[in-house]
Amino acid sequence: MNNIIVLVSTIVLFGIQNFKSDITASFDKTNIDFPIVTNQTSGQPAPSFKDVEPLLQKYTCIVCHTEAKKLIGPSYKDIAKRNYTDARILQLIYKPEPSNWPDYPAPMVPMTNVKKVDGLKIAAWINSLN
Ligand code: HEC
Are residues 64 and 31 in the same domain? Predict the structure, then answer.
């Protein structure tokens, strides 16, 4: 008999606790949703390396550029220091101006196959390295 009482009260207590955590969970959710909505309306945050890595591979940028080290081309960090706008970076991807980087013996090939949306995403990431 005692066992049954313990069992019943355990079930009841467990039920109340679950109910409480349901309430807390839905309360937390409304708190989390709010900033996400504001972010979407007030502009996208800069893409992360994870976001652009597949693009840098797809368009072979990684063959000549790394984030922080000079390779065949300047590092993205050095490019970020030039403070170009995203649109200007896109323009330079399509039509490189080797005179901007006189220390580099080989000019960059024009990469006109880069989709505008992808180029701007890469540009936003480069500028976030500043
Ligand atoms: C074959 C090597 C090579 C590849 C592939 C390459 N780059 Fe470059 N990149 C260079 C070199 C060399 C320079 C510096 C000389 C120049 O601008 O021509 C450069 C310069 C740049 C600059 C600076 C332009 C300026 O005038 O300041 C940007 C931005 C850039 N690259 C982005 C990219 C992106 C994004 C990709 C991929 C879509 C890419 N590059 C692919 C070699 C390359």
Answer: no
Please give the DSSP secondary-structure letter assigned to residue 103. Answer: T
In this prediction, residue 2 has a pLDDT band, given cuts at 50, 70 and 90, of low
Residue ID of nearest Cα to ligand 1 atom 34 = 61
Same domain (yes/no): 117, 53: yes
Q: Is 79 in the pocket of ligand 1 (CB under 6 A)?
A: yes
For residue 63, the CA-to-ligand 1 centroid distance in Å is 10
Global pTM reads 0.76
Q: For the domain that residue 73 is a member of, what is the CATH number?
A: 1.10.760.10
Nearest CA residue ID for atom 37, ligand 1: 61
Range of the domain at 7: 1-43
CA distance 95 to 99: 12
**Res 3 pLDDT > 90:** no
HSE, CB side, 13 Å, CA atoms: give it for residue 66: 5
Asked if 68 and 11 sit in the same domain, the reply is: no
